[in-house]
Design brief:
This is Surface antigen domain-containing protein. The protein is an alpha+beta fold. The protein has one domain. About 35% of the residues lie in helices and about 30% in strands. It has a 5-stranded antiparallel beta sheet, with helices on one face.
Length: about 120
């Protein structure tokens, strides 16, 4: 369960919130309301890593679905700035009406691995 909480806290960033504290509080609330299951997050993370390792091109997209939760969505490679890549997550869940869109960033570390980040420095 700790891994799931860590994924929920770190996976998605919301660029329009101001302070770090507001981001954490807003993010927790948005994830709670998102309707995503822990398995949905795992599938989304796998797809995100496929888009950055090796790094694709802006606009590359991959679809995902989870038959267990009946959630589905797309992860699209957005902006690429230096060693950082923006990922745009759009998804639908049965627990939340409509399409939700969240943005996250991955930045390549010196050892070549990709780390969740707040964006380019």
């Amino acid at each position: 369960m700790k891994l799931i909480a860590l994924l929920l806290a770190a996976f998605l960033t919301v660029p329009f919130l101001g302070t770090i504290e507001a981001k954490a509080l807003g993010l927790g609330r948005m994830l709670q309301d998102s309707g995503l299951s822990p398995n949905d997050l795992s599938v989304m993370e796998t797809i995100a890593l496929q888009l950055v390792n090796p790094l694709g091109s802006t606009g590359d997209a991959r679809r995902w679905s989870n038959p267990e939760s009946r959630s589905k969505g797309t992860v699209t490679l957005g902006r690429i700035e230096g060693d950082c890549a923006e990922l745009v997550h759009s998804f639908n869940t049965v627990r939340r009406p409509g399409t939700a869109i969240y943005h996250s960033w991955r930045c390549r570390r010196a050892d070549g691995t990709w780390q969740i980040s707040v964006g380019p420095k």
